[in-house]
Specification:
Layout: H1 2-19, H2 25-42, H3 54-61
Helix pairs in contact: 1-2
Length: 95
């Protein structure tokens, strides 16, 4: 899944920054959030179901994870066309 790849790549970069003593509270918060997100995705659960604060949502928004996006269920619509009016025949097609 592409979400997992993005998370792992960002976690690697954050680990390097933190190990180089470039540690900041913001980096630590992002690191912890992404560790939670990784666990969520690895357990085959979408990120939209993960509990997040408003700040967490701001931090993760820039990644544009697919599993964070809402799902739209679109029912299949059946359209019937009628031709041959006056002849008693009708033709149906599904589009």
């Amino acid at each position: 899944m592409s979400d997992l790849g993005q998370i792992e790549k960002r976690l690697e970069r954050l680990e390097k920054k933190i190990s180089r003593r470039m540690k900041t509270p913001e980096l630590e918060k992002e690191f912890e959030l992404l560790k939670r997100a990784k666990a969520q995705v690895e357990s085959d659960k979408p990120l939209r179901e993960m509990e997040m604060t408003a700040d967490d949502k701001k931090r993760i928004k820039g990644f544009m994870f697919l599993s964070e996006k809402p799902i739209f269920y679109v029912p299949q619509h059946r359209r019937v066309h009628r031709t041959g009016q006056g002849t008693g025949r009708s033709v149906s097609s599904v589009t």
